[in-house]
TrEMBL record:
<protein>
    <submittedName>
        <fullName>Peptidase M23</fullName>
    </submittedName>
</protein>
<dbReference type="Pfam" id="PF01551">
    <property type="entry name" value="Peptidase_M23"/>
</dbReference>
<dbReference type="GO" id="GO:0004222">
    <property type="term" value="F:metalloendopeptidase activity"/>
</dbReference>
<feature type="region of interest" description="Disordered">
    <location>
        <begin position="87"/>
        <end position="115"/>
    </location>
</feature>
<feature type="domain" description="M23ase beta-sheet core">
    <location>
        <begin position="276"/>
        <end position="370"/>
    </location>
</feature>
<dbReference type="InterPro" id="IPR016047">
    <property type="entry name" value="M23ase_b-sheet_dom"/>
</dbReference>
<feature type="compositionally biased region" description="Basic and acidic residues">
    <location>
        <begin position="90"/>
        <end position="115"/>
    </location>
</feature>
<feature type="signal peptide">
    <location>
        <begin position="1"/>
        <end position="25"/>
    </location>
</feature>
<dbReference type="InterPro" id="IPR011055">
    <property type="entry name" value="Dup_hybrid_motif"/>
</dbReference>
<dbReference type="InterPro" id="IPR050570">
    <property type="entry name" value="Cell_wall_metabolism_enzyme"/>
</dbReference>
<keyword id="KW-0732">Signal</keyword>
Length: 379
């Protein structure tokens, strides 16, 4: 009798132990790393790729650019700082003083003009040229050592990037151009058979008008959210979005999706659809935590037809991150979030085939690889 009772207990306890072990495997502990000036919250066992660095000197300033690999789809972090003063000999100091005494623009006046540059950021234009034809301005933020900003190498770029630094002080204008070679890496391609829900594969025609109205409302909602503009919100803290690192679909992968529908147990295949994956998919189970990767303001938190539970965070200067297919959203519009803050739970809502997090980042409307941000030494 005793053995029978023990077997019954094991019959109920064993599945619970198995499920709990799975949950532990799915949710390993996170830890905090110090990578240069940046504080990184991440799953244990994961570290971001080390950023590459390129420097350009011009006048009294130095332009420093960091990127994960200077590849298509990578975000880049730029700093413009004052160059370290070189030690000059007494003779050279005397020669410089004598030269300044005979010029209309002595060194003291040049120094004061340089100070005015730092005080009047609106007099500085910083442009990034894409493909030699499209021009984008890198919005700069003043910090203790100079100016800082983020820009994106577009994923469809076919050539190098040129950074043009233009500074205007009174009637003087100076223009410096810096060549930034770009690695034109190829993105992966895949072919898969995806069992999407019937509403996405073969929607009910009787509900077409209702669906069209909903999609129109959601487009307007997203348009208002993306039009939100705010100041630079980044700090020296960044975070991995999950408690484990397992990417199931990489950024900008070209996917040939073979869809089908079930009719009375019979599978009917539909014409394949090719799509570009403009984000990253992270594996997860329903209810697993989602963390904000950088500080910002929530400008959208709503259940969408395709995106499912969708949260959009504005980080300032036209940079947004999006978290899709959430089972539950923990924030609301207007909330200020910090890097590493819990903002939602992984889910299988919207147009999905299983539970996961789709993470996206946009810089002035152009999609980039979100993981490339986590390699940058922000301060």
């Amino acid at each position: 009798m005793y053995l029978i009772r023990m077997k019954r207990k094991l019959f109920f306890i064993a599945p619970l132990l198995f499920l709990s072990s799975l949950l532990v495997a799915q949710s390993p502990p996170r830890h905090t790393l110090r990578i240069g000036p940046t504080v990184m919250h991440a799953p244990k066992g994961w570290r971001p790729a080390t950023a590459q660095r390129r420097e350009f000197d011009f006048g009294e300033h130095r332009l420093i650019v960091f990127s994960r690999s200077f590849s298509r789809g990578d975000l880049c972090y730029v700093e413009i700082v004052r160059r370290p003063a070189s030690k000059a000999s007494p003779k050279s100091e005397e020669q410089t003083a004598e030269k300044d005494a005979h010029t209309e623009n002595p060194r003291s006046e040049r120094a004061s003009q340089t100070e005015k540059i730092g005080e009047a950021v609106d007099l500085i234009e910083h442009h990034l040229y894409y493909k030699g034809s499209i021009q984008r301005q890198v919005h700069l933020h003043a910090f203790s050592d100079g100016w800082q900003g983020l820009f994106l190498i577009p994923p469809d770029q076919n050539g190098d990037t040129y950074l043009t630094w233009t500074q205007k002080v009174k009637a003087d204008t100076r223009k410096d151009v810096f060549h930034l070679p770009v690695h034109l890496k190829s993105f992966p391609e895949s072919k898969s058979v995806l069992p999407f829900a019937k509403e996405f594969v073969d929607p009910d025609k009787s509900k077409a008008a209702v669906l069209a109205k909903r999609l129109e409302e959601e487009r307007a909602m997203k348009g208002r959210a993306f039009s939100h503009r705010s100041a630079w919100a980044f700090t020296n803290e960044l975070s991995h979005p999950r408690d484990m690192h397992y990417i199931t679909s990489p950024f900008y992968a070209s996917r040939l999706n073979q869809r089908y529908k079930d009719e009375g147990g019979k599978r009917t295949y539909l014409p394949p659809v090719r799509s570009i994956h403009r984000g990253l998919d992270f594996r997860g189970v329903t209810g697993a935590p989602i963390f904000a990767i950088a500080p910002g303001t929530v400008v959208l938190a709503h259940d969408m037809h395709f995106e499912g539970g969708f949260t959009l965070v504005d980080h300032g200067n036209g940079i947004f991150t999006g978290y899709m297919h959430q089972h539950r959203i923990h924030v609301k519009v207007g909330d200020t979030v910090k890097a590493g803050q819990l903002i939602g739970d992984v889910g299988a809502t919207g147009m999905v085939t299983g539970a996961h997090l789709h993470l996206a980042i946009w810089v002035q409307g152009i999609p980039g690889d979100p993981l490339s941000l986590l390699s940058l030494p922000l301060r």
